Amino acid sequence: MKIIIHGGFFSESGTNQEVKHAKQEALKQIVQQGYDYLQTHTATETVVYTVSLLENNELFNAGTGSQIQSDGCIRLSASLMDGRTLKFSGIINVEEVKNPILIAQKLQAAEDKVLSGKGAQQYARENGFDYYNPETPQRRQEYETKLNDSIRLGTVGCVALDADGNLAAATSTGGKGFEMPGRVSDSATVAGNYANGVAAISCTGVGEDIVSGGVATKIVTRVSDGMTLQQATEKTLTEMKPFDGFVGIIGLTAAGDIYYADTHPYMVWASYDENIKVFS
């Protein structure tokens, strides 16, 4: 059983080391909670649970503490990929909810598995997800003062391998900040979040770059075709160099191989298995 999580790029809320350290400490606690949960739950249940913890921590740009778009609204996106059933579900640009990943989980059993905008919000309300304002004072200040010199990149994600050898991936984001309303990020697409019976990947970075590179599906497909996780990741990220793709990934294979990589430092991440705990 193994688990790896990411919290986006630490510079998205500032470039100081204090922010990075705070995120690392939060990831340390959350990956421990996720690993403990994995002992008695499936990979799919675990990635949902763990991403919900990340969404609830305002240090990260997902759920509470998400970035504010150019019209002053917060819109959230999240997705879930079950590597055993090969079912993908997602929620795009939903407003006024606390945990978009829980809505994505609910959609796994629905006929229409990816919803956006007002339809997504209506589905949330009809299924017991009450009104919630994810705004924090820091994000409001950033919006009002338009801190264009900050790097507003951040997403959270989790991939897990359970005791039965099943993989799952979950990703959630509050967007890049000040974007045009209606923009769709990679987080609720198979480019940013994908898993099958062989490998699972969650991405962070610039959504447009990740979609252009088809990153998560491309890596998983290459591992399925015989590459190692490292080889598949390196080849995929190399293919993004012509447009200076900004991406970070975390990945797991059914054999238990863990790998992470980023094209632009520094992504914050943490992994946990029976033998090693790593934070960066």
Structure keywords:
Glutamine Phosphoribosylpyrophosphate, subunit 1, domain 1; alpha+beta; 4-stranded antiparallel beta sheet; 8-stranded mixed beta sheet; single chain; 280 residues
Q: Give the distance, in angstroms, between the N- and C-terminal Cα atoms.
A: 21 Å
CA gyration radius, whole angstroms: 17 Å
| Gross CATH architecture | 4-Layer Sandwich
SS content category: alpha+beta
Please summarize the sheet with the most strands. 8 strands, mixed
Global geometry: globular
Which strand order do you get reading across the main beta sheet? 4-3-2-6-5-1-11-12
Average pLDDT across residues?
92
How many domains make up the 3D coordinates? 1
**CATH superfamily heading:** (Glycosyl)asparaginase
Number of beta-strand segments: 12
H-E string = EHHEEHEHHEEEEHHHEEEE
Number of helices: 8
* Share in helix: 25-40%
Give the low-pLDDT segments. none
CATH class: Alpha Beta
